[in-house]
Amino acid sequence: MADTDHCCSTQLIDGDGEFNVVGLDNFMRTTKFSNCGLSYAVVAIMGPQSSGKSTLLNHLFQTNFREMDAYRGRSQTTKGIWIAHCVGIEPFTIAMDLEGTDGRERGEDDTTFEKQSALFALAIADIVLINMWCHDIGREQAANKPLLKTVFQVMMRLFSPRKTTLLFVIRDKTKTPLEYLEPILREDIQKIWNVVNKPAAHKDTPLSEFFNVEVTALSSYEEKEELFKEQVAQLRQRFFNSIYPGGLAGDRRGVVPASGFSFSAQQIWRVIKENKDLDLPAHKVMVATVRCEEIANEKFCRLSSDEDWLALEEAVQSGSVSGFGRRLSSILETYFSEYDSEATYFDEDVRNAKRKHLESKALDLVHPAYLNLLGHLRFKALENFKSRLEQMLKEGEGFAASGRACTESCMHEFDQGCADAAIKQANWDASKVREKLQRNIDAHILSVRDAKLSELVARYEEKLRQLLCEPVESLFDAAGRDTWASIRKLLRRETETAVLEFSTAITSFELDQPTIESMLQGLRDYARNLVVKKAREEAGKVLILMKDRFSTVFSHDNELMPRVWTGKEDIKTITKDARAASLRLLAVMAAIRLDEKPDKIENIILSSLMEGTVTSPDPLASSTWEEVPPENTLITPVQCKSLWRQFKSETEYTVTQAISAQEAYKRSNNWLPPPWAIVAMVVLGFNEFMLLLRNPLYLMFLFVAFLLSKAMWVQMDVPGQFQHGTLAGLISISSRFLPTVMNLLKRLAEEAQGHRTPESPTQQQSSVAFQSFRNQSQLNPTSSIAQSSVSSNVSVSDSSVEYSSPNLMQRRSTKVQEAELSQ
Ligand SMILES: Nc1nc2c(ncn2[C@@H]2O[C@H](COP(=O)(O)OP(=O)(O)OP(=O)(O)O)[C@@H](O)[C@H]2O)c(=O)[nH]1
To answer: Which of 45, 68, 69, 228 to mutate to test the pocket of ligand 1 (most atoms within 8 A of CB)?
Structure first.
C-alpha cells in the first residue's frame, strides 16, 4: 500500500478497507499532529464520483489530492480514504477525501465500502462537506439522495452522535440565487431525514439534534475558474478557528485528543468493518484508557531510566543524601506533569485513574530508595546517640539526664532527616522507622545502664569483700563468745555504709523505687553471703583451728609466754583448759548466727563433750541443732561429735610429749649422786682432799678446772641438751664441741712441748669457726638461748605443726619467736 501517493496526502484506508497504520503514524509524526491536544479539526468530503471533491479540497486547503484529468474523461480517481494537512489553517485541520459514491442505491446492506466510509467520516470528522450538483436540488432522482440517506442511516448507529456540521456545497451553481436554492435543499434533506429508519429512542428526534446543516454554493470550476477560486477563498475563511464557538464546528462533541487520533481511527474502522455498533462514548473511554496507559507507561519507563533518578538511587545506596526529597520530588514532578499535559484531553475519570496508577508505580519504584535513606538516617542517629551518650557520661553528666538529652537531640535530627527525605507526591510514613530507632535507643540505654550498674555493683561488692573477708576471717581466728556479735556488728556497719554510698551513686540513673530496693537488697544479700561463705570456709577447717587453739592454749601460759615444762605445771588442768577453748571454738563455728537468735550450742557441746554429761537422748546424736535452721547449720551435732573424737586423738600426742618433757626436765635437774655415795666419797677421798688443800698448785688447778666447767655448762646449755635424754644430750654436745676441744687440747699440748709447727688449713678453719662462734655469742648473747627455746617449743607443739597450715605455722613460729626475743 502506498503511503503517500501525493506529496502531502496520505492514504488512510485503501480501496480494500485496509487501514494504513504506518502511514497515519508517519503523518502524525511529520505534521506534529499528536501535540495538538483538542485543538484540531477534521473536515471530510463525500459526494458522487468525479463531482470535483478533490479539486475543491485542493483549492480550499492547498492540499494535493489526486484530481481527475478533465481531458481524459470522468472516471473514479479516489480509492479509499485519503488525508492531508490543511496548511495555513488554524487550528490544525485535517482534510479527508472519501472515495466517491456511485449514485446507486445498494439497499440496506451496511457492509459496502460507501456506507462504511460514510460512517467513518461521521465518527471522525467535525465538518462533513456534502458535494452535490446544483441541478440535483429538488430532483426526485438526484444523485445525492441515496448518499444523504446513507449518512442519516449510519448516523443512527452512533450511540451518541458528535453533532457533525453538514456543509452542503452546491457545485456549478446557476444564476438562481442561493436564497432560493437553500430552502429547497433543506426541504429535501428534511424529507430524507423523515423517511430514514430511526431507532425508537430517536423516532421524534429532530435533525438539528444530530447535525448542523450549512449550505454554500460554488460556481463551476471548469467554466468560471476565477470566480470559483474567489468563492473557494471566501469559503476557506470559514475554516479558520472552526472549532471555537461560532465556528463551523463550534458545538462539536466528544473529541478525541490528537495523541489518541491514530488509535481512535483504527478502532473505529475496526468496529465499522466488524459491522458492530459504534458506541462513541465507550470508544472514547476505551481510547482514553489505552492512550493514558500508553502515556503512563512511557513516563514510567523514562522515569526508570532517568539519569538523575539513577544517580540519586546510587547515592542512597552508600549513605544519606541531603535534599533527597526535594530532588526526587522534582524528578517525579517532571514525569507526572508530562503525563498530565499529554493526557489532559482524555476522559477525566480514565485520566485520573491512570495517573494514580502511574503515581503508584512510580512511588513503588522510588520507595525502596526512601526506605534505604531512612535506614541510613536511623543508623546515623543511633551512632550519634551512642557517641554523644558516651561523651556526656565521660563528662560526668547524670545517666538518665544524658540519656534523655541525647535521645531528644538524635530524634530531632532523625525527624529533620525524614522531613528532608519526604516527597511532595506521597505522604510516606516514617513512623515505623522512627519507632524502631526509638526502640534501638531504648535498648542501648538499657544495655549501657545495665553495664554501668553492673560495674557499680561489682565495685561495691569488691569493696564489701575487702571490708568484710579479712576482718571476718580474723574474727573467726580469734573465735570466742563475742565472735558472732562482732561479725553482726561489722556486717551491719559495712553493709549500711556501702548501701548508703551505693544508693547515692545510682541516683543519677533515676531508677524506679522497686528496682532500687531490689539492688540495695542485692548488695545486702551479697554482704551477708560473703560472711556466710567465709563462715563455711572456716567451718571446713575447724579441726585445724581447734588444734591450733589447743596448741596455743596448751603451749602458752596466761601471759602468752611459751611454756617450759619444768615439772611444776598441772598438765591435766592445762589440757582441760585447752580442750575447752577448742570446744568453744567448735561451738562458734557450728552455726551461722547473723540473725541474733540465742542458741544453746556451746552449752550442749561443752556439757556433752567436755564434761561428758550423759543425757538421754544424746543432744549430739542429731543432724540439726535445736532452734537453728538447717541453712544456718555449719557443723551438725553428729559432725561435732566425730570432730571431737578426731581432735582428741590428734592432740593426745602433744599432751604425752609435754608429760615426757616434764619428766626429762626433772631428771636433768637431779644430777647429784645419792647421799650414801657422797658419804663414801668423803670417807674414802679424805686423804686426797687434804693433799689438795695442802698443795696450793693443785688447789689453783682445781679452781681453774671448775671455772672452765662452769663456763662450758652455761655456754652449752647442758640441762637443755639433756631434756631429750642423756644420749641425745651427749651426742649433741659432743658433735658441737668435740672438734674444737680436741683442737684446743692439741694446741695446748703442742705449746707445752714447745714445738710450734705451722697451722694446717683444717686447723685454721677450725680456729676461725671457733672464733666466729665466740664472736656471735658475744654479739647476740640470747641467740643460742632463743635457739634452744625454739627447738624445745617446736618439740612440744610437734603435733600442731604437723596439722597446721603453712601460714598458721609461720604465725605460730613468729609469735613464739617474738615472745622469746622480747623476753
Ligand atoms: N463541471 C465541473 N467540473 C468540475 C468542477 N470541479 C472539477 N471538475 C472536474 O471534474 C472532474 C473530476 O474532478 P475530481 O476533482 O477528480 O473529482 P472527484 O469527485 O474528486 O472524483 P473522484 O474522486 O474520482 O470521485 C475533473 O475533470 C475536474 O476538472 C466543477 O466545479 N464543475
So the answer is: 68
Q: Which residues are annotated as a binding site?
A: 47-54
- ipTM here: 0.97
Structural domain containing residue 158: 9-278
- Pair 642, 521 in one domain: no
Instruction: Give the chain's radius of gyration (CA, Å).
Output: 67
Q: Tell me which of 99, 102, 221 to substitute to probe ligand 1's pocket, judged by most ligand atoms within 8 Å of the beta carbon.
A: 221
* DSSP-assigned beta bridge partners for residue 57: none
649 and 587 inside one domain: yes
Residue 231 clears pLDDT 50, i.e. is over it: yes
What confidence score (pLDDT) does residue 388 get?
95
For the chain, the domain total comes to 6
CA dihedral over 323, 325, 330, 331, signed as positive or negative:
positive
Please work out whether the CB of residue 220 comes within 6 Å of at least one atom of ligand 1: yes
Q: Are residues 44 and 142 in the same domain?
A: yes
- CATH number at 177 reads 3.40.50.300
The verdict on residue 647 lying in a domain is yes
137 & 77 share domain: yes
- Residue 639 buriedness (CB in 10 A; 0-12 / 13-18 / 19+): middle
Query: Is residue 787 assigned to a domain?
Result: yes
Distance (Å, rounded) from C-alpha 336 to C-alpha 334? 6
pLDDT tens for each residue of 51-101: 899 999 999 999 999 887 666 555 557 889 999 999 999 999 999 999 888
Q: How far does residue 273's CA lie from ligand 1's centre (Å)?
A: 29
